[in-house]
């Protein structure tokens, strides 16, 4: 288990299934345009799943929702083309942060405006907007407000950290992603998440 905040790319490949998942750490979307070009041009470099998200670092850096829309808007057609070429593109919405601890740049209304912008940008594309993280973060935040806790060295609960969600929630995200990927690969029926 990771014991620090993870600010790196993650690549996962399954030996027997056609699954190659990339989590791209590019919070301000600087590297993504070049990678999209490469993935669209070279099928052998193309991931089967691309999970990404941005917004929080735009907020914390003082950028506006319009800055975010402009940056993401420039890549929408390429992300959409990639999704049409059998890469499952998943764009995770910004987690709700602890309301009482968030500063004005990351206030709930600001987070919601960034998330609404993301929904609008990808509305008519095959990019999957991942929003099931929001109920989990809301429950985590409620629990942190009621019973603040911190586990030094583990980060399962990191209630003192206003800018990150504890790994108890991140572990659930990983389970949801892997279930979604595996269910699709196993041709699970409509009763299963894909």
Decide which structural class fits the backbone: alpha/beta
Mean pLDDT over the full residue set: 83
Helix content: 40-55%
The tally of beta strands, per DSSP, is: 5
Topology:
Elements: E1 10-13, E2 20-23, H1 32-41, E3 49-52, H2 56-60, H3 65-73, H4 76-84, E4 88-92, H5 108-121, E5 128-130, H6 133-146, H7 167-185
Parallel strand pairs: 2-3, 3-4, 4-5
Antiparallel strand pairs: 1-2
Helix pairs in contact: 1-4, 3-5
Report on this structure.
By secondary structure, the chain is of the alpha/beta class. It has a single domain, classed as Rossmann fold (3-Layer(aba) Sandwich), CATH 3.40.50. The protein is 41% helix and 10% strand. It has 7 helices and 5 strands, in the order ββαβαααβαβαα. A 5-stranded mixed sheet has the order 1-2-3-4-5, with helices on one face. Helix 1 links the parallel strand 2 and strand 3. Helix 1 runs parallel beside helix 4. The chain is globular, with a radius of gyration of 17 Å. The chain starts with 9 loop residues before the first strand and ends in a 9-residue tail after the last helix. The model has no long low-confidence stretch (mean pLDDT 83).
Short description:
This protein has helices at residues 32-41, 56-60, 65-73, 76-84, 108-121, 133-146, 167-185; strands at 10-13, 20-23, 49-52, 88-92, 128-130. The chain has a five-stranded mixed β-sheet, covered by helices on one side. The protein has a single domain (10-131, 172-185), classed as 3-Layer(aba) Sandwich (Rossmann fold).
């Amino acid at each position: 288990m990771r014991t620090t905040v993870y600010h790196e790319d993650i690549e996962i490949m399954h030996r027997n299934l056609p699954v190659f998942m990339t989590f791209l750490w590019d919070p301000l979307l600087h590297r993504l345009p070049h990678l999209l070009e490469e993935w669209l041009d070279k099928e052998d470099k193309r991931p089967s799943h691309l999970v990404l998200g941005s917004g929080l670092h735009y907020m914390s850096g003082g950028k506006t929702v319009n800055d975010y829309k402009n940056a993401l808007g420039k890549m929408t057609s390429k992300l959409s083309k990639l999704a049409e070429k059998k890469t499952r593109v998943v764009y995770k919405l910004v987690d709700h942060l602890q309301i009482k601890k968030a500063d004005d740049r990351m206030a709930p209304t600001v987070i919601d405006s960034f998330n609404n912008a993301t929904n609008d940008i990808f509305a008519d594309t095959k990019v999957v907007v991942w929003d099931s993280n929001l109920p989990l973060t809301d429950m985590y935040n409620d629990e942190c407000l009621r019973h603040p806790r911190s586990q030094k060295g583990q980060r399962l609960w990191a209630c003192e950290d206003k800018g990150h969600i504890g790994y108890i929630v991140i572990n659930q995200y990983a389970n949801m992603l892997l279930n979604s990927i595996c269910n699709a690969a196993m041709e699970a029926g409509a009763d299963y998440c894909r």
